[in-house]
Design goal:
Layout: E1 2-9, H1 15-28, E2 34-41, E3 47-49, E4 76-80, E5 84-89, E6 93-97, E7 101-105, H2 115-123, H3 132-139, H4 141-150, E8 158-162, H5 168-181, E9 186-190, E10 200-202, H6 208-216, E11 221-226, E12 230-239, E13 244-245, E14 249-253, H7 260-264, E15 270-273, H8 280-296, E16 301-310, E17 316-322, H9 332-339, H10 344-363
Parallel strand pairs: 1-2, 1-7
Antiparallel strand pairs: 2-3, 4-5, 5-6, 8-11, 9-10, 9-11, 12-13, 12-14, 12-16, 14-15, 16-17
Length: about 375
């Protein structure tokens, strides 16, 4: 029986989202195959072994969305370079946790951006999802757009903004750029954040400064993007060197746009259409672009690739890639896989297999030049 450490919580604006995703993973991991070790990370970044209530290990009725309790400070978990994870107890001192695979369920900063992946590489443990490079590229919307543009893939037009640009004189220049390049309204978002945290729709130049400052609370740089009158389409990709792509789904938000509240607080925030009602040609183009975006961003394991499809022209634009997408049983990524015939539990099994496969490949590499 393999021992699976489920890492959740974390130093992120998406901490609470992580508790929801992790709740589903605990409930759907096959208890006959795996021994589950829940590890919660506080908002300060401290790691503690968790003892969730009994209900956390049973599947929710009617697929309802649940959240794990807040992370409790209990036995501290330590990451030791080259030695895996250790438990610090008051009675027995340090004890090694025998972990076969780590399943990071950490959305956003310090979880989806390559930092936790680098730590797990250092302690020498297999982990689910993209590696350091793929995670970092996927997290930074500007970097991923640059890579996609260099590959000739279609992205939404954007302007990059940093803190030094937020002066009255620079803001006038930025406003003129927006008006010249794509006009109002536009969207302003953090370059390195998720779940629409810090994202604003801006309809007038007077509101641009506040929107940029809001985005820069969550990231060192922000993006101003053209508004597209579009349908929001998402595609699930799964695999390492030979990834597979699943038919896309569509999000129809009831809010002005698919913001944090629509995603996680309002039960009627959006309607999910799976599969998306698309022309066959458009569906095939989106699936092909999703695979290309995945590969050019150097992602492995899994990702949800998000698109805009312009409502009048049908033109397709890449929006972003999420390497640790929302993972409840009713989230888009698992639901697209389920609709294609891969059950939630089978999906978890496959992700763990991919983690072990990728770890084995890296173990074959040489790191000691004196032995080469």
């Amino acid at each position: 029986m393999k021992s699976i450490a489920v890492l959740y919580g974390g130093r992120s604006g998406e901490h609470e989202v992580s508790l929801i995703s992790a709740s589903s993973i605990l409930a759907y991991l096959d208890k006959d195959k795996y021994s589950i070790v829940p590890i919660g990370i506080t908002k300060r970044g401290e790691w503690f072994l968790q003892h969730p209530p009994e209900w956390a290990y049973s599947r929710p009725e009617n697929g309802q969305m649940r959240s794990l309790p807040p992370v409790e400070r209990s036995e501290r978990v330590l990451a030791v370079p080259g030695e895996g994870l250790w438990l610090e107890t008051t009675t027995k001192g340090l004890q090694k946790l025998n972990i076969d695979v780590v399943f990071p369920v950490l959305h956003g900063t310090f979880g989806e951006d390559g930092t936790i992946q680098g730590l797990l590489e250092t302690v020498d443990l297999p982990y689910v999802g993209a590696d350091v490079l793929g995670s970092a590229v996927g997290m930074d919307k500007e970097v991923s757009k640059r890579l996609w543009l260099s590959a000739g893939l279609p992205v939404v037009d954007y302007i990059s903004v940093r803190k030094e640009d937020v002066s009255d004189e620079n803001l006038k220049i930025l406003a003129r750029k927006v008006e010249t390049r794509f006009g109002w309204p536009c969207f302003v978002k953090p370059a390195c954040s998720g779940s629409s945290v810090g994202t604003s729709k801006v309809t007038h130049s007077e509101d641009l400064k506040d929107a940029i400052l809001s985005a820069l609370r969550w990231s060192e740089h922000a993006l101003i993007e053209a508004f597209i009158n579009a349908r929001e389409i998402e595609c699930a990709v799964l695999g390492n060197e030979r990834p597979m792509v699943f038919p896309p789904g569509e999000i129809v938000p009831s809010h002005e746009f698919y913001d944090y509240e629509a995603k996680y607080k309002d039960p009627q925030g959006a309607t999910l259409l799976i599969p998306a009602p698309l022309l066959e040609e458009t569906k095939n183009r989106i699936m092909s672009l999703a695979l290309s975006a995945y590969k050019y961003a150097s992602v492995k394991g899994m990702a949800r690739v998000d698109f805009f499809v312009e409502k009048i022209t049908g033109e397709v634009f890449l929006n972003e890639i999420n390497t640790i997408p929302g993972f409840t049983a009713i989230s888009m990524y698992p639901r697209m896989c389920i609709d294609a015939g891969v059950s939630y539990s089978e999906l978890l099994d496959k992700l763990l297999e991919l983690a072990i496969e990728q770890y084995a490949i890296k173990r074959e590499l040489e790191y000691d030049f004196s032995k080469a």
